[in-house]
Specification:
The protein is an alpha/beta fold. The chain has two domains: 1-21 and 206-227; 30-204, no CATH class. It has three helices and 13 strands, in the order αβββαββββββββββα. It has helices spanning 2-19, 71-81, 207-226; strands at residues 36-38, 42-49, 58-65, 85-89, 99-104, 114-115, 125-127, 135-136, 142-145, 151-157, 165-166, 181-187, 198-199. Strands 1, 2, 3, 10, 11, 12 and 13 form a seven-stranded mixed β-sheet that branches. A hairpin with an 8-residue loop joins strand 2 and strand 3 (58-65). The protein is globular, with a radius of gyration of 21 Å.
């Protein structure tokens, strides 16, 4: 009986270890991406690096498609699919669309907003003028916006490249390449390629559930040992 009780306690400890959040691994190939959007035989990676010091500050998604697709198609699709991701764009002009801001509900509490406020549609998008330095209402979340004082620099990586190259085309005109990458990096000045990203996850880590499950499991194990 004692061995059974000890096994129960060990099992409880193992469950708590399994449920505990793990450090996310850096993305090195498209196969490392967890959050895929769209369908088709072609694939591309989509990276956003907020450079704000909040972990994780660089995240990666994936996009699938058939035929021909533009970079703006991937941006719209990924933002629309992930309820934690938001974007503020310029209105359509002759020069195309500009990206003013990206945001992410980093703490996964399903509460997201900006100050000054933006009205996001059901796809997580808003369009209009930029405000330099607009901030998230929840300091635990990502939001970076700017155009003349800080801006989103746009990068690309071909399927065979090992490093990022500054994009020579805008997001509205750039045609996606199977196996390629698009990257956005917020900078206050100069230019900086996206830093190594981790995989964006489809489901937020159930931290509260994990803690409760651990507590209940260990309590049951300890009671069994006292009998």
């Amino acid at each position: 009986m004692q061995s059974v009780r000890m096994s129960l306690l060990a099992g409880g400890m193992w469950l708590c270890t399994w449920l505990a959040p793990c450090a996310a691994a850096t993305i090195t190939t498209l196969d490392d991406i967890q959050y895929w959007v769209g369908t088709g035989s072609n694939r591309a990676g989509f990276v956003i690096d907020w450079n704000d010091g909040k972990s994780d500050e660089s995240l990666a998604w994936g996009f699938r498609w058939d035929g021909t697709a533009k970079a703006i198609d991937m941006l719209h699709a990924v933002v629309a699919a992930d309820p934690r991701l938001f974007a503020h764009l310029s209105t359509l002009a002759s020069s195309g669309v500009s990206v003013y801001g990206f945001g992410y509900d980093l703490d996964g509490d399903s509460v997201f907003g900006t100050s000054p406020a933006l009205a996001f549609n059901g796809s997580g998008l808003s369009a209009g003028a930029f405000v330099n330095g607009r901030a998230p209402t929840d300091s635990a979340d990502h939001w970076r916006e700017g155009w003349t004082s800080g801006f989103w620099s746009y990068w690309g990586k071909s399927p065979t490249a090992t490093s990022w190259a500054f994009s020579g085309a805008g997001v509205s005109s750039k045609t996606l390449v199977n196996g390629g990458w698009d990257g956005w990096s917020f900078v206050l000045s100069g230019s900086s390629a996206p830093s190594p990203a981790v995989a964006a996850m489809m489901v937020p880590e159930p931290a509260a559930f994990s803690l409760a499950a651990c507590a209940l499991t260990l309590l049951a194990a300890r009671r069994a040992l006292r009998r």
